[in-house]
Amino acid sequence: MTLLSATLFAETNVLVFAGSTREDSYNKKLAREAADLAGKKGAKVTVIDLKDYPMPFYDADLEISDGMPENAKRLRDLMIESDVILIASPEYNASIPAILKNSLDWVSRSEDGTSSRAAFKGKKFGIMSASPGKGGGARGLAHLRAVIEDVGGEVIQKEVSVPRAYEAFNEKGTLEDSTLSQALKEEIGQLFQAKKI
What we know:
- Strand 1 (13-18), helix 2 and strand 2 form a beta-alpha-beta unit.
- The chain has seven helices and six strands.
- Helix content is 42%, strand content 14%.
- It is of the alpha/beta class.
- The chain has helices spanning 3-10, 26-40, 60-66, 70-81, 98-107, 138-150, 178-194; strands at residues 13-18, 44-47, 84-88, 124-130, 154-155, 160-162.
- Strands 1, 2, 3, 4, 5 and 6 form a six-stranded parallel β-sheet that branches.
- The protein has a single domain (3-194), classed as Flavodoxin domain (Rossmann fold, 3-Layer(aba) Sandwich).
């Protein structure tokens, strides 16, 4: 890596989170590994847990009466400040978890109660999943991609799905399979390449 590349990477803000709040979530492990790879590129990486951002289900009446919830504002601000956003999502019934969809619904609003793409437009998104099933959560990622792209985010083509997640991670919480590890490295690499830096 050249000095110029390292400097540009350091100016890249990366936000990372999982679409799961479970303490020992496979997707939290995957998110942390992705965050570590982004950090090794020299980027400024922020990892959050959606458990720390509880918010009510989106309700237009609630939005009118109470405005945007404080935690939705916090998450929206973090996304607006980020250049790259990495999301590791489990697959729930062939789609994405309610907590993740609800969070994205709230941050697609503005504080004055109108639709807003500020948290998505101009951002590069990398999506990934880990699942106990054979498909690795790929069906859920198709829905996640559609949601993000619909509100203006750019999701890179490369994505990683980790099947049989209960045996995919070692005691340190990193991927055991070298092929999956390489795929994740390639996805992170593609994200930075997509930023044209």
